[in-house]
């Protein structure tokens, strides 16, 4: 993934009307901006370094962020007044992905965590993360599941033969 959120600090004590946080925005492993939301209901303040709203949105769209919500981030490709709204929506997707990744890694320390395309949600199994248990899981749920541990996705044997 080209867009990453790092240094995410949730600030619940400051949240009045919305989620208060600070975060660093990375593109291709280089810091390109900082986002601050004061939790007052206003949009987050984004300060760009070596990036801009249009570039950020173009990368988010290329990464498939526009499929996360019912509205489309592709509106930015045509001149309109929704630039700030679309940037905020793209940032929200990036934050959701960062938070999900954090939770998956935490859960994967003690459980098997996997994603099944048809279910559109994370599933956990209370079992030791062994190759034998992975195979049992794949036998039961099918081959189209993706198993994760605290370091990320676990390659399956067929993945390794494709490289």
Give the strand line-up of the largest sheet: 1-2-3-4
Characterize the biggest β-sheet. 4 strands, antiparallel
Strand content: 25-35%
Give the overall pLDDT as a whole number: 78
Number of distinct helices: 4
Radius of gyration: 18 Å
The succession of helices and strands, N to C, reads EEEEHHEEHEEH
What's the short story on this structure?
With 163 residues, the chain is an alpha+beta fold. The chain contains four helices and eight strands.
List the helices and strands and how they pair.
Blueprint: E1 3-10, E2 21-27, E3 30-37, E4 45-48, H1 53-62, H2 83-107, E5 112-116, E6 122-125, H3 131-141, E7 145-149, E8 152-153, H4 157-162
Antiparallel strand pairs: 1-2, 2-3, 3-4, 5-6, 5-7, 7-8
Helix pairs in contact: 1-2
List keywords for this structure.
single chain, 163 residues, alpha+beta, 2 domains, four-stranded antiparallel β-sheet, elongated
How would you describe this protein?
- This protein has 163 residues and is α+β, with helices and mostly antiparallel strands.
- The chain has helices at 53-62, 83-107, 131-141, 157-162, and strands spanning 3-10, 21-27, 30-37, 45-48, 112-116, 122-125, 145-149, 152-153.
- The strands form two sheets. The chain has a four-stranded antiparallel sheet. A four-stranded antiparallel sheet has the order 6-5-7-8, with helices on both faces.
- 18% of the residues are buried.
- The model is unreliable at 158-163 (pLDDT under 50).
